[in-house]
Design goal:
heterodimer; A: alpha+beta; Rossmann fold; Serine Threonine Protein Phosphatase 5, Tetratricopeptide repeat; 6-stranded mixed sheet; B: Rossmann fold; 5 domains; 18 strands; chromosome (chain A); DNA repair (chain A); EC 3.6.4.12 (chain A)
Chain lengths: 722, 640
């Protein structure tokens, strides 16, 4: 939210914070800083000037704070590491150097809270702020435990409206279920003191670090203020023309809106800084981003020109007009023409008609959902919308409505769904966008529950249809894998597993976590995604365990067989293709069997020659002829006119020779073609053919990955493409 | 398969955005209409006094159909090609270009529109042909005395495809004819046609037959066309692919019948992904193909035009990446950087791609839920249709069918983890079955991957429960809902062309063809107001009167309650001096706001208070105090 914030972190850097405790491999300070850095970097990431942060160290070797300067006792070894300010990456770098374990054990945490509250009071004055103090410590050093001063501090915090969050390393927390064994007495006493302070505050939290760190991996969702997309009438009928038309004043907000991952930009090392080598492992400096600059896009415009070399020439951007394409015709539009092309519309939300629930399938939804409610405090509209919602609900009907967000916007059609407020405390309509005529592609698919033969018979038993056994096994399996009661709510009652509010966008949060980590620790490699992000990528283990026998039965009934990779897409020579009638075309061709290949009908003739070839020399001859045709097409091509055709011939040659397991023939031809093209032997500059159509079209050498008998390795191809 | 290099190329274009429609479009489509011009095809339909009776000859209907489809394709498939070849004509015409086979090569074949992305002139020419019965048409549409050899027609089509659409992923020849036996018992002619058809098959051209039957005579494909037509062995197993004859009658003109038959095959079936592994359970994987039967069509973007030449020409743009000093940058030099705290945080290319990895592509079932657990607001983007493929796993179809039947029968849905292709962002999807098509369900039967919103995508909108309708108001509204059902009781998208899109192309077409700009757009999305008023107007009027009474009563009781509350609270409140403006501002109601504006006391509010009010109205709260005041005043003016 846009509220202003002032937060002070008090970090215990006393010498014992450098020790590792309770089996952890990292020091108490590093452990605590995981939490603090995450908090601070989240603030940095938000990039808000009004979210301000200050940092105080306790147990520091030096002392630097106003009360101490004024000569007050009890403020030793407390240092303000950063005054309250909008925090930037530069401050993060500075802080990273300052926050190191000291060689002191001192610094009273309670005094530090006083320093922090003074800072906040001074900074925020009486303005509207969210004020917070975080204290992280392992509480190894005695604190001022007098009831009197605790009362004073608590009163002050309450007066100033400051929230206090105390997170301690290995603090006991029965709620979380943690208790430190053999706790030093001093620590136990300090914990009790801090807990006492927290209990005196109006707004305070007390917790243990382990829990705080654990919760870091739970993604935080950026909350967005509801956006009002429409404020106006929802009408039934034309209120301007017909007095009996109904107008309901409504407001429409977005209910769902796809959140986008942070958008990155391409950067490159500044050229004057030299090659990339300069900017690798050195720490800190390149974090300033000084060596990087944004990559820019430059556009060049070309038009066809028969007289220019290569058939194209550059034109200046300033010489170009704007326009639209109509098929392959370009239609220039002058500035004054542009308004005409926009459909004139008036802001409107009006009902077109109603349809029953049963006629609508959710997969017709075209996108994001809106929520429509009556204008607040408008009794007539509230009543009218409520009546509409209830009537729709009772009749199990949806409304279809035409929606124009504002004057001039494109009309949309919405489906309005009634939410009668049975589960929610409010009634509303949800709207989803519907497809227009142009948005639906009619694809035809065969039926799934029967097989139609070519002769028009309907079969209900067929290898493509499930047997009764398979149907039963599938049904049992689906029932066994039920998720509807697998989750648990706070009280442990069974609830839906993987509800929407627990599923986080893996890409967004993975990226955010990585960016924050990289900001704080620029030299560390990126870690794996947090487990919580991949939680729903697999069925829950427990469910699989319980459904073991159903899974077994399903696999047995299904009898699915994987097609070996080699056999895919291959036709044996015997398996000739026939038309519907089954006529044997090869027999028709008979003696007139094709052995010479013409340029006009090259692909069919080439394929047929190979299909009927009985020896390698026939194949070689066909490949040779095809090769000549390809070269000729390139040679005779005016600019790039025949490149596509040459490339298609080449593609067919490549595919056929992979199938015949004779990749060497292709590789040999391609090598000779390359030298012909690049040497300019094919009448001019034909490099576009090579780079765009052959390399770009993936028609390079056949590698051993594609054909076992090819001796060409992938690396060779990379080199060959250059 | 013959999809060409385009499909392979897509992985290179690693765009930041989710790979979606853009690459899906790279599989281009070319369609050549071959229309039979014979005496019977030119025979006018029997005279009829009926208003909707056929007036078109079969040839005319076919041309009109082609005209309509050409216009449709310009909008929906702007990069795809189309051509029209007439056969059996007295005159012959191929191309005039030198070097190609002269027209004598294909006697009685008349290439009316060469295969290409249609140009405005092509549309215009076709329009004149079908609308004006011009002399041109009279001259062209003269049947030859001897019929065209089908082998010639097919080879002519072969050449058209070979030269103009060499590497298109989808190439199809649409044959429209009423003659099921063009060569009778002439074996030689039949054989050479069969050989040419095999050539087309080897070339990768699919022949679709659109027979016209009339006078109850059945079009018998076994006489000739069964030797011509092939079925792709890789197409969906069990596909019926039945050939439907178009005919006039049953209230349907030949044109409509033809359009509906051709439209059903018009869009090439392009797979969004092929042979994706669908893991139903550990140890049980089948393969599926994915399709996008729904896709929002938008007007094409503006382009740049070069006007200095003889004709307006499209300027093709090439982009290159440069750095500050205008040096061209290689991809390997770049890094992915993110703004963070005013600086760049960067990842090298390997790390950037590592960050996108969330397991390989695939579709994996997590479990099942009752369909009722899908919240009605849970929608973020269009769904993907999947259908089984036997290519990688034999038996996929029957397993898929069993799952489909179970989900339909028990109203369940699957929950699945879905990554459409390498590098695509993972999604959680609901797997929903669609039933067999019927009167109100027009989508194919199969399974749909319905993308579920993540928690990140859901906005929390706080609404308070206002007053609820009384039973009699609700009952009254029920009548209205019952009376205003859409035709046939379902939403039929075919009835609602996108008005903005149609208008856009209508204008571009008019400018391209130098026609008059139409004055009024056709907009089928505008409700039928007059009909509505006729049907429910009077009733609704009565209902509104009742509503007004109810609302007034409500206001009354509310006011009373407020008074009582105020009485209770009075002692705690501040002295009178604090006027309306000093009430807790967030809850300041519209009337109070209006008063505040009239009395010009709004500016006494603090910035924080103003923001609170604005926020409660859903207005942006950015800007200085003066801006905030202005925004609020404007809102009150417009809404109160």
């Amino acid at each position: 939210m846009a509220d202003k914030e002032a937060t002070v972190y008090i970090i215990d850097v006393g010498e014992t914070m450098a020790d590792c405790h309770n089996g952890r491999m990292e020091s108490d300070l590093d452990f605590s800083m995981r939490y603090v850095w995450d908090k601070i970097s989240t603030t940095v990431a938000a990039g808000r000037k009004t979210w301000t942060v200050g940092v105080i160290g306790t147990g520091t070797d030096e002392t630097n704070n106003p009360p101490h300067d004024e000569g007050l006792a009890g403020y030793g070894n407390i240092s303000i590491l950063q005054e309250i300010t909008a925090i930037s990456m530069a401050s993060v770098r500075e802080l990273r150097n300052k926050i190191r374990p000291s060689s002191t054990s001192g610094g009273d945490a309670i005094s530090a809270i006083v320093v922090a509250s003074n800072m906040i009071e001074l900074f925020t004055k009486k303005l509207k702020y969210k004020r917070r103090i975080f204290l992280v410590t392992n509480a190894d050093f005695p604190v001022d435990d007098s009831e009197e001063s605790l009362d004073d501090v608590a009163t002050r915090l309450n007066e100033l409206g400051i929230e206090l969050v105390v997170i301690g390393v290995d603090f006991d927390d029965p709620d979380y279920g943690y208790k430190e064994e053999d706790k030093p007495q001093i620590k136990a006493h300090n914990e009790a003191t801090l807990q006492n302070l927290v209990s005196k505050c109006n707004n305070a939290v007390y917790g243990t670090m382990a829990q705080a760190v654990e919760e870091l991996s739970i993604p935080r969702i950026k909350s967005v203020r509801p956006f009002k997309a429409y404020d106006g009438d929802l009408t039934l009928g034309d209120a301007e023309k017909y007095e009996n038309a109904l107008s309901i004043h409504v407001e429409r907000y977005f209910k769902t809106k796809r959140a986008a991952p942070p958008s990155g930009s391409m950067v490159v090392n500044r050229s004057e800084f030299g090659g990339p080598s300069q900017l690798t492992q050195d720490d800190d400096v390149e974090m300033g981003g000084t060596g990087l600059s944004a990559v820019q896009q430059m556009r060049n415009y070309k038009v066809n020109d028969p007289d220019a070399p290569g058939g194209k020439r550059d034109v200046e951007f300033s010489d170009l007009a704007k326009g639209y394409q109509y098929g392959r015709t370009v239609v220039p539009f002058s500035e004054s023409d542009f308004p005409i092309i926009k459909l004139e519309t008036k802001k409107q939300f009006t009902i077109v008609g109603f349809v029953p629930f049963s006629s609508y399938d959710p997969f017709l939804n075209m996108g994001e959902v809106g929520i429509v409610a009556a204008q607040r405090q408008n009794d007539e509209s509230e009543l009218a919308l409520s009546a509409l919602i209830r009537a729709l609900h009772e009749l199990e009907s949806f409304a279809v409505a035409r929606y124009v967000q504002k004057d001039g916007a494109q009309p949309q059609l919405f489906l309005l769904k009634p939410n009668p407020g049975i589960e929610d405390p409010f009634e509303c309509l949800y709207d989803v966008p519907l497809p227009f005529a142009e948005d639906v592609r009619t694809y035809q698919f065969p039926p799934l529950d029967k097989v139609l033969t070519l002769t028009g018979h309907i079969l209900t038993e067929h290898r493509l249809l499930p047997t009764a056994d398979l149907n039963k096994a599938m049904s049992d399996y689906v029932d066994a894998m039920d998720l509807s009661k697998l989750g648990a709510d706070d009280e442990g009652n069974p609830t839906e597993y993987a509800p929407i509010d627990e599923s986080y966008n893996p890409i967004i949060h993975r990226l955010n976590q990585a960016i924050r980590a990289r900001a704080v620790h620029p030299d560390e490699p990126i870690g794996p995604p947090a487990g919580i992000l991949l939680r729903f990528s697999k069925p829950p283990e427990k469910l699989l365990d319980d459904a073991k026998s159903e899974i077994r039965a399903l696999i047995d009934a299904a009898e699915v067989k994987k097609v070996p990779a080699k056999a895919k897409g291959k036709r044996s020579k015997k398996d000739t293709v026939k038309p519907l009638s089954g006529l044997d075309i090869d027999a028709l061709l008979g003696q007139g069997r094709r052995t010479t290949i013409s340029k006009e009908n090259a692909i069919p003739e080439f394929k047929q020659a190979l299909a009927t070839a009985s020896d390698d020399s026939t194949i070689e001859s066909a490949v040779k002829q095809m090769g000549e045709i390809i070269k000729k097409l390139i040679q005779e091509s005016f600019a790039d006119l025949q490149y596509a055709r040459a490339a298609e011939n080449l593609r067919v040659m490549r595919e056929e020779l992979i199938n015949l397991e004779m990749p060497a023939l292709y590789n040999k031809f391609l090598t000779s073609l390359k030298s012909s093209i690049l040497s300019g032997a094919l009448d001019g500059d034909r490099r576009e053919m090579w780079f765009k159509h052959i390399i770009g079209g993936r028609l390079s050498l056949i590698t051993s990955d594609e054909s076992d008998v090819s001796g060409v390795m992938a690396e060779v191809v990379t080199e060959f493409a250059k | 398969m013959a999809w060409g290099g385009d499909e392979e190329r897509r992985s290179e274009e690693e765009q930041d955005e989710e790979l979606d429609e853009t690459d899906y479009k790279t599989q281009k489509d070319a369609v050549l209409f071959a229309i039979d011009v014979s005496n019977s095809m030119l025979e006018p339909p029997p005279a009829s006094s009926e208003k909707r009776a056929d007036r078109d000859t079969a040839v005319k209907a076919a041309l009109k159909c082609a005209y309509q489809i050409m216009q449709q394709r310009i909008i929906a498939q702007p990069k795809d090609m189309m051509g029209i070849l007439l056969f059996g004509t007295e005159r012959s015409k191929f191309r005039d270009e030198p070097g190609s086979r002269s027209s004598t090569g294909y006697p009685h074949c008349y290439l009316l529109t060469d295969l290409d992305v249609p140009a405005a002139e092509d549309v215009k020419k076709l329009k004149e042909l079908v609308e004006e019965d011009g002399e041109d048409l009279e001259e062209i549409l003269v049947p030859s005395t001897e019929p065209a050899l089908m082998s010639n027609v097919l080879f002519c089509a072969n050449q058209v495809f070979t030269t103009n659409a060499a590497n298109f992923g989808s190439r199809r020849l649409f044959i429209i004819t009423d003659d099921d036996s063009p060569h009778g018992s002439d074996k030689t002619a039949k054989s050479s046609a069969a050989v040419r058809a095999k050539d087309l098959y080897d070339l990768g051209v699919v022949i679709e037959l659109f027979p016209i039957s009339r006078g109850g005579k059945k079009f018998d494909v076994s006489k000739f066309y069964d030797d011509i037509i092939y079925r792709d062995p890789a197409s969906e197993a069990g596909a019926s692919d039945e050939v439907k004859a178009s005919k006039s009658g049953d209230g349907l003109t030949l044109l409509n019948s033809l359009i509906s038959n051709i439209n059903s095959k018009q869009t090439p079936k392009r797979a969004y992904f092929s042979n994706l592994g669908f893991e139903l359970a550990p140890g049980l994987t089948i393969s599926v193909n994915g399709y996008m039967p729904l896709h929002r069509q938008t007007p094409a973007r503006t382009c740049y035009v070069w006007l200095d030449g003889e004709t307006a020409q499209l300027a093709q743009s090439e982009t290159s990446k440069i750095d500050e000093s205008a040096r061209t940058v290689e991809k390997s030099e770049t890094r992915k950087a993110y703004k963070f705290g005013g600086e760049y945080i960067y990842f090298n290319p390997e790390e950037a791609s590592e960050l996108k990895k969330m397991g390989g592509k695939g579709l994996r079932i997590i479990g099942f839920k009752p369909r009722s657990m899908l919240p009605m607001w849970a929608s973020v983007k269009k769904s993907t249709f999947i259908f089984p493929s036997e290519q990688d796993y034999v038996g996929s179809t029957r397993v898929f069918s069993a799952l489909w039947q179970k989900l339909l029968k028990d109203k369940k849905m699957g929950l699945a983890w879905f990554i459409a292709r390498e590098n695509a962002n993972p999604l959680l999807v609901a797997v929903l079955p669609s039933q067999n098509p019927d009167d109100t369900h027009f989508l194919p039967a199969g399974l749909w991957l319905f993308p579920l919103p993540f928690a990140d995508d859901v906005r929390s909108v706080d609404l308070d429960g206002g007053p609820r309708s009384s039973d009699d108001l609700t009952d009254g509204m029920r009548e209205v809902v019952k009376l205003l059902q859409l035709p046939k009781g379902f939403y039929n998208p075919a009835k609602y062309p996108n008005p903005s899109l149609q208008w856009h192309y209508r204008i571009v077409q008019a400018m391209a063809l130098e026609e008059d700009i139409p004055e009024h757009p056709e907009d089928a999305t505008i409700p039928k107001y007059r009909q509505m008023d006729k049907r429910v107007g009077e009733y609704l009027g009565g209902w509104k009167a009742e509503l007004a009474v109810k609302a007034k009563g409500l206001m009354h009781s509310k006011a009373l309650k407020r008074e009582l509350d105020a009485d209770d609270e009075r002692p705690a409140k501040r002295p009178k001096a604090a006027t309306a403006t000093k009430t807790p501002s967030g809850s300041m109601n519209n009337a109070q706001l209006k008063i505040a504006i009239e009395q010009d006391t709004l500016k006494k509010l603090t910035v924080a208070e103003l923001k609170e009010i604005l926020a409660s109205k859903g207005i942006s709260t950015t800007g200085k105090k003066a801006d905030l005041l202005e925004k609020l005043e404007q809102w009150v003016e417009e809404n109160v």
